[in-house]
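FAQ: What does a ligand-bound record look like?

Like this one, built around shikimate-3-phosphate:
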Amino acid sequence: MAKKKRYQVSPVLVGLMGSGKSSVGRRLAKRLEIPLIDLDEYIVEKAGKTIPQIFDEQGEEAFRDMESEALREVLGKPAVIATGGGAIMREENRALLKEHPPVIWLKASPEFLASRIDGDSNRPLIAEGETVKKLQALAEVRYPFYESCADYIVPRGEMKKRKVLESILRFLKRWVRKDH
Ligand code: S3P
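The answer part, i.e. the structure of the complex:
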């Protein structure tokens, strides 16, 4: 007999760089017994280039086009979807996210995030130092967007990954019970 799936749900993780979308997403996918789709990895595979290469050679707008296209392709699949930190910037993406709940925001302060990703050469938007300042500027613009898309907000900075995972799983149980 086929093994019964735990929940029929495709959670989407959003949040700033370093909030743990990929690593929490990996654990969540394992617990839900569904695949993880990491949007950045999906874009990199499709483009055949790293993210810094895409930014350098084609510019950020081209990356954002790829990101929107990737989002359209993956939303709705039976998977945990870990988005890139800027995926909520375009209005069309936010509209898409709202059509594919539940969206979970891993909320964390720029200071907490900077300590985790300082000097990461794979993240063009925080290259060349002043990481806290850059993250503060991003947070100012993006927090309202994350909030407007989120069905659930996890205070990532105050919790260890294990707690974050448990909190998301409890939310999903409630979510599924409400017949979503
Ligand atoms: C970006 C975040 C990155 C990646 C790209 C741009 C952003 O993803 O998509 O470097 O605009 O915040 P992570 O949030 O997974 O680091």
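Follow-up question: can I read anything off the structure? Yes, for example: Residues 29 and 36 are 6 Å apart (CA to CA).
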